[in-house]
Amino acid sequence: xxxxxxxxxxxxxxxxxxxxxxxxxxxxxxxxxxxxxxxxxxxxxxxxxxxxxxxxxxxxxxxxxxxxxxxxxxxxxxxxxxxxxxxxxxxxxxxxxxxxxxxxxxxxxxxxxxxxxxxxxxxxxxxxxxxxxxxxxxxxxxxxxxxxxxxxxxxxxxxxxxxxxxxxxxxxxxxxxxxxxxxxxxxxxxxxxxxxxxxxxxxxxxxxxxxxxxxxxxxxxxxxxxxxxxxxxxxxxxxxxxxxxxxxxxxxxxxxxxxxxxxxxxxxxxxxxxxxxxxxxxxxxxxxxxxxxxxxxxxxxxxxx
Length: 305
Known about the structure:
The chain has 10 helices and 14 strands. With 305 residues, the protein is an alpha/beta fold.
């Protein structure tokens, strides 16, 4: 089942076309990485999904219900975490979630239950400090708790880790992985390593269009280039290795540094045998020998250049 369906969506501001006939879908219980450079149109798309911005053309459906600009009927299915969530700074976490629960019409019993569950999930249970004294990471974690309060079918996170340090980023990514079984996550970001860590589906937005989409495994298989990397203990070992007659034919497409060689080959298995034989014959012990897979970064750079 597709939780989110976007078809032929377009949006311009004046003469500047931001979104150009955009189409993609997000399946249930996935973590969907919506990737693009700053200014690519990710936030514009999310605002149209939330009904906060009117599309020029196209349609958006959430749980098979059409999104309409200015109406919030479909937002009952959505939890939203903006890149910079705002709070009442004089409140404490439990007070804030209680207020949010009352505004959305939850029962007092359900508010208490969900507040305790979610503050435990995001590591803020028992924290009695005012929100104004929170770090950026703590605010993002509270924002996730607030977004999940209504048990949404779809959790939209717009650049949730962009301004966090590595520890704060890890905390947010760990939380998103934990909620995957209970909701569907759309994770909008330009931080490619975060996508590679937690997302099972991705779409790359470039010049208003989807330049690349699919599961990580599908994309890596599709764009795989047979590539082998060898790292040596020192420059002398590397020079001795590349001087071997069996290796010379492979050096035409090789890239190298003082102690490392990376080369593309047609037959990895055959090349591995040659490489291992040369290493053995010359009594060279490499630090690393690796058949390399394409990374999200390499795929991204290939489609947006």
